[in-house]
Please model this.
Amino acid sequence: MMLSYLFGAAAVVWMGMLLCVIVLLQRQRRLALEMQEVRRMLADMPPANSSDH
Amino acid sequence: MKWRIAAVVTLCIAGLFSFYLDFIWSPPEAQMGNVVRIMYFHIASAVDAFLAFGVVAVAGFLMLVLRFRRLNSFVARPRTGVFALVFDPWAWDRLALSSAQIALVFTSFVLISGSIWGAAVWNTWWTWDPTLTTTLILWFLNVGYLLLRSSIADRGRAATVSAVFGIVAALDVPLIHESVTWWKGLHPEVITDAGFNMPPSMVITLLISFGVFLCVYALFVYLAYMVNWQRSELRSIRLAVRDRLAQMDQASH
Model:
């Protein structure tokens, strides 16, 4: 019974940290891809002063 | 990205070593038996939570000082390079936010692991002991800090208000530490003025656990800082795209 308390607490802390690092790395990767995409979109746009008219 | 993965892998190895010391190498305690091993990550999480909230207060204070230009008359401000970040109030603001996010993680770990430890030793999951209560207050202050930030739309105002809130809220940290001696509740006093109140092998295990957890805190804050920086960058690029689209729309009419 005592060991289940110990392993329960250890699982919360260590697994929590592992989960936290995975979430942060994934979020960073996703944001980097999103930034790349939006930057590309901005670069593909014609300059502000150019117009067909 | 590669060195970040390397840092995570190195920390995992250090974590496994610390895990080995916690669960195999260190001896069980005479009264509590093996449950005492919870202490190694409970106290280390508490140290990280207190440090993180200290960083929130210091970074918030520096942000306020730099933003209101008190330092500029004394220090020549570098405009480029890494040192420019030191004089950038928004960098300190981002650090305060990142540290508050990580503080919430570690304060939750402290409360959960402490509660489990309490269930095993005191036969209750929660008691209104002064140390436990002040730690719970810190958790609520932490949630309050993050809610306050997200509820204010204006970035400058959000930074100022949350910095003041963070400085005031950090006063709870010394209160938690001193509550053990001031009010003498159920919570034991592990670190006294005379040092650690335990055998050397347990002290070594605890110190290594501190070291690993501090490195984990540093990595988490760095990753959270980068995510917050990316978010603000993305917001400004999106604004630029919107402005460009508006200009193109105006030119076509």
Remarks:
- The two ends of chain A are 80 Å apart (CA to CA).
